[in-house]
Amino acid sequence: MVGDMIWLGFALFAGLVAYVLVGYPVLLALAARGGRPHQKQDCEPTVSVIIPAYNGEGFLASKLRSVLSLDYPKDKLDILVVSDGSTDRTDELAREFAAEGVKLLRVMRGGKPAALNASIPTVSGEILLLTDVRQHLEANSLRLLVRSFADPAVGVVSGELVIGNARGGEEAEIGAYWRFETWMRDRLSLIDSMFGATGPFYALRKSLAVTIPPDMLLDDVYLPLSAYFKGYRLVMEKEAKAYDIATSRETEFRRKVRTLAGNFQILMAYPALLGPGNRMWWHFVSYKLGRLLLPWALLGLLICSSLLPHPWRWPVCAIQLGGYGLAAIDGWIPAGAKLKKLSSPARTFVVMMIAAVLALKVFFVPPRSLWKVTSASTPGSG
After folding, report:
1. Is the four-CA dihedral 39, 41, 45, 51 of positive or negative sign?
2. Which residues contact 116 (CB under 8 A, 6 or more apart)?
3. Mean pLDDT, rounded, of the chain
């Protein structure tokens, strides 16, 4: 009886790991083939560009030049920089662009949600373009984004964030990981909706904007999901591009902890995600909830493996421990070595699993303590 229970546990944990990592992406790709593309048509609604910035002097001038170069009627575009209590030259740089129509709103340091809450009521555009201070926008990106709002069922449109590779190595792995995430989001968009938006570059109907809780870690999920539960679609426009530089694995680790911690907040803010009120319930459980459960499934798999009878125990454990060991020694493997092609992805995966565990800190520490200012390799990055 005990042996049967061990094998059952092993099978359940192995099945969950395989489903989240391989099974669901395959099923998602198949489901997307029968998706329903949204309507697109050239249109020119009024747009308010909001750029929250905290100590963004290294990026702001380049960002504003990027926004001012957008191929969009200037009389239908207004630009607002929201300085979140910046202590550097952010405010001064924003004022230097005043003659070109850039406005500055300075607020007390309160985090991005507070900055958005303060700024959204002050703008008048039919569409809000929310974009961070670092990313460079392609000239036609806004025009491509707003085409999707010709479909009355669309409430939020995300552009594609293209992650470049500044130095190779681990940054290339982060870029590859983001490309996979973008692929997943695009497939969800084809079916119906993503579960959020691409934070550094997305647009939403101003009429759908709601107040964001000040300690919310994922404003780019909270705002779009409000529109989603009102019946609107959250879609991706892959042709509308913003460009970024891959950050280090350490920076990505901190960002991933914050993102996964934010998912716990989102579950508490929108419990309907787990019930019949979510028209994409299966996708949410498989994608978002599955990611949160994955490290615990891996732990359960290892424990069950260690209890398997001879001769299964050691080979099965060796495979798992070998993968973790490969991840552990990745830092000592030379960049050009063939083994690096296995160790680097293994390390990236293990780091993400550790981040999922540490995300539980959101229940024990002030959420804002998980916010860290992201450093990038060059100006214009994110």
Report:
1. positive
2. 50, 52, 82, 130, 212, 219, 223
3. 90
**DSSP 8-state class, residue 287:** I
Architecture of domain 47-251: Alpha-Beta Complex (3.90)
Tell me the chain's radius of gyration from C-alpha atoms. Answer: 22
Determine the Cα–Cα distance for residues 305 and 11; give it in Å rounded to an integer: 10
Q: Are 227 and 157 in contact (CB under 8 A)?
A: no
The residue type found at 341 is: K
CA-to-CA separations, 168 to 48, 183, 377, in angstroms, rounded: 36, 21, 12
Q: How far apart are CA 188 and CA 144, in angstroms?
A: 19
Q: Which residue in the block uniquely carries the two structure tokens 């934010």? A: 262
Distance CA 76, CA 46 (A): 5
In angstroms, rounded to a whole number, what is the distance separating the alpha carbons of residues 54 and 56?
5
pLDDT tens digits for range 302-357 = 999 999 998 899 999 999 999 999 999 988 888 888 898 888 888 888 988 999 99
pTM: 0.90
Beta partners for residue 237, in sequence order = 159
Q: Which amino acid is at 378?
A: T
Q: Which residues contact 362 (CB under 8 A, 6 or more apart)?
A: 217, 261, 262, 264, 265, 370
374 — phi, psi (to 5°)? Answer: -80, 130
In the chain, domain spans = 47-251
Contacts of 29 (CB under 8 A, 6+ apart): 187
